[in-house]
Amino acid sequence: MDADHARAAELDALRGAFTTGCAPALGWDAVRVFEAEHGIVLPEPYRTFVAEICDGSTQGPPEWGLLPLASLPDGWRGGGTGRDLVKPFPLASRWIWTDHPRPVEEIQAEIDAVSDHGSVILGDEGCGMYWHLVVAGPSRGHIWLVFEDGAVPFGAEFDYEPGEAAFPHGDSGFAGWVKHWAAGNSWFDDDDE
């Protein structure tokens, strides 16, 4: 995964995966305005995807479609007022906060940072599960699933960390996530379904 450079093969695969249901691409000027407003540079190939290919889609991934770049899922907590994309996404490995020794109420600010710092939300998987693309922090360029009980990186099994060879397509970023979906694979290993 190279979050700083889009590869032609990745972009071709993304074009092939989104043949229907795509919203018009934003164009480079709009992407640069978004980045300047938020103090970040979007990771590739997502950056080129929203600029040149598609800014959201009614078809997956995820279950309810791919959100446009500047959008949040309906009913997002606080309307997104606490979101800060320049603050680093705080995780580099999975965290199930319901297993934390301190009560959730004591670690709520840390939990909120997982949902609100350093990521764009790609969409809603249902049941309070949201896919995030990390745009700032140690996991920049990786896809994470944030849900009621914790946060885990996208991978063949959610016990793997970003960047390990266990990813089914060798890529824990946007292109690998889309490729996994386009191949009809489940997001979850059999134990988690």
Tell me about this structure.
This protein has 193 residues and is an alpha+beta fold. The protein contains five helices and five strands, in the order H-H-H-E-H-E-E-E-E-H. It has one domain. The chain is globular and about 45 Å long. About 7% of the residues have low confidence. This is SMI1/KNR4 family protein.
Summarize the structure.
The protein contains five helices and five strands; from the N terminus they run H-H-H-E-H-E-E-E-E-H. By secondary structure, it is α+β, with helices and mostly antiparallel strands. It has one domain (8-184).
Strand-helix topology:
Layout: H1 8-17, H2 28-38, H3 46-53, E1 95-96, H4 108-116, E2 119-126, E3 129-134, E4 143-147, E5 150-153, H5 174-182
Antiparallel strand pairs: 1-5, 2-3, 3-4, 4-5
InterPro entries: Knr4/Smi1-like_dom
Protein name: SMI1/KNR4 family protein
Domain Knr4/Smi1-like: 30-149
